[in-house]
Amino acid sequence: MRIFSCHRWGAWLLAALAFQAPAQDFPNRSITMVMPYAAGGPGDTITRVFAGAMQKHLGQQIVVDNTAGASGSIGTAKVARSKPDGYTLLMIHVSHATNTAMYKSLPYHPVDDFEPIGRATSGPMLIATRNDFPVKNLQEFVDHVKANGPKVSLAHAGVGSASHLCGLMMMNALNVKLNEIPYKGTGPALTDLMGGQVDVLCDQTSGTVPSVKTGKIKAVASAGKTRLSQLPDVPAMSEAGVEGFEINISFGLYAPKGTPKPVMDKLTAALQKSVSDPEVRQRLEAMGISAVSADLARPEALRAHLKNEIDTLGGLLIKAGVKAN
Question: Which CATH architecture has domain 125-248?
Answer without folding.
Answer: 3-Layer(aba) Sandwich (3.40)
